[in-house]
Amino acid sequence: MAKPKVRPLYDRVLVKRLASETTTKGGIIIPDNAKEKPLEGEIVATGNGKVLDDGSVREMSVKVGDKVLFGKYAETEIKIEGETFLLLREDDLLGVLS
């Protein structure tokens, strides 16, 4: 995957959704129309940070390459050069996977 030519502003991150599972733990194949979109992805770009009320900038607590969890309806889906990415605020991230 080539690096997208978009730099998010402020406290936003650009995320590439991770692939969803095609089978259950028991081995049952999940058809495409029954799959839920995964709520985890990898950060591919970040903004500079959140601008606070006093004008200072709080740095991002996540970085490019982090695998993160996010809320079900928190994302804005965008297409860049045929690939689908999600644009989220740092506040919409629920956690970093280790």
Outline the structure in words.
The chain is an all-beta fold and about 100 residues long. About 0% of the residues lie in helices and about 40% in strands. Strand 3 and strand 4 form a beta hairpin. It starts with 11 loop residues before the first strand and ends with a strand. The mean pLDDT is about 80.
How far do the termini sit from each other?
A: 22 Å
Shape: globular
Which structural class best describes the helix and strand composition?
A: mainly beta
Q: Rg, please?
A: 15 Å
Total separate domains: 1
CATH class: Mainly Beta
Mean pLDDT rating:
80
Strand order in space, largest sheet: 6-7-1-2-5-8
Binned strand content? 35-45%
Largest sheet: 6 strands, antiparallel
Low-confidence stretches: none
Helix tally equals 0
CATH architecture: Roll
Summarize the structure.
With 98 residues, the chain is mainly β.
Which helices and strands appear, and what pairs or packs with what?
Blueprint: E1 12-17, E2 40-46, E3 50-51, E4 57-58, E5 67-70, E6 76-80, E7 83-89, E8 93-97
Antiparallel strand pairs: 1-2, 1-7, 2-5, 3-4, 5-8, 6-7
Which key terms come to mind for this protein?
10 Kd Chaperonin, Protein Cpn10, Chain O; globular; six-stranded antiparallel beta sheet; 98 residues; 39% strand; mainly beta; two-stranded antiparallel sheet
